[in-house]
Amino acid sequence: MRVANAPVSWGVMEFDFGPDTYEFGRVLDEIRASGYQGSELGDWGFLPTDPVDLRRELESRVLALVGAFVPVNLRDPEAHDDGADRALRTARLLSSASPDGAALIVLADENGRDPVRTKLAGRIKREHGLTDEEWETFARGAERIAGRVLEETGLRTVFHHHSAGFVEAPWELRQLMEHTDSELVGLCLDTGHYRFGGGDPAQAVAEYGSRIWHVHLKDFSPRIAERARENEWDYFQAVEHGIFCELGEGQVDFPGVLDELRQAGYSGWLVVEQDVLPGLGSPLECAKRNRAYLERVGV
Hints:
The chain has 12 helices and 8 strands.
C-alpha cells in the first residue's frame, strides 16, 4: 500500500470556504516534502488542466496522480448527462497525465446541497433518506457514469460516501453497494466520513473487502462532534471547527482498519485527508505528523 495526500488537506475543496490560500505548486511541493508518493487532482482547475503541464508538474516532484473527486447530483436524473460529461473530462485528463491507468474517478453525491442533509450531518435518520424510486435513479446514474468512464477511457470508478450527502450512514452505503454492479462501481472507503456517519471503518473493510478499490484515511473528533450536536452545527460548521482532526487524535481505529485491509489483500492507494482550513493549523506540519503517525502504525 502506497500513501498519497490531496489538495483538500491544504483547504482546497469543492465547497466554498473562501479563496484558496495556497498555490498549486506549493501544495505539490509540500505533499512531496512531507513524505507522500502521490496526490489526487483536487477541485477542477486547481492543478493544471492541460495534460502536458500537469504531467510535467507531477513528474518533476516524483508524484503519482491517483484519483479525482467528481460530485454529481445523482438523485436528479436530469443531472446525469452533465455529471457524465464532467467525469469523462476528468478521466481523460487523468488518463493523459497518468498513463499507467491506475488513477480512479472518485464519484460522489453532490454533497452539501440538500439543506436537511447538510444540517443533520452525523445525525441522519432513515426518514431523511431517499425513496425507493430515488435509490433506483441514484444507483443507475452511478452505473451509467462509471460505465461511460470505463468504456471511453479505461479508468475505473469508485463511489465516495460522504457526510451531508445522500449516502452517509452505513445503511445508505450498503443500499448503494447492493444496488450497483460490483464489477463496475467500486468503493472509496473514507474512514472519517464513515465514522461521522455512525459506522465503524474497520467493520466496513471486513464487510466490503475486495469492493474497496481506493481508501481515504481521515480521522474524526468525537469532541467536535459532541459540540456540533450541542450547538446544532451543520456540516460546514463542523468542518470549520476541525471535526476531521489529525490522524491518531480522533476516534478512527487506524491499526484495525489497516489490519483488515491487509487481510482483504488491498494493494491500492491510501490517501491521507485532513481538511485544514485557515485557522486550523499549518497544512505542511499536519501532513508531516500524519505521515509520521502512519509510519508508527506500519505504513
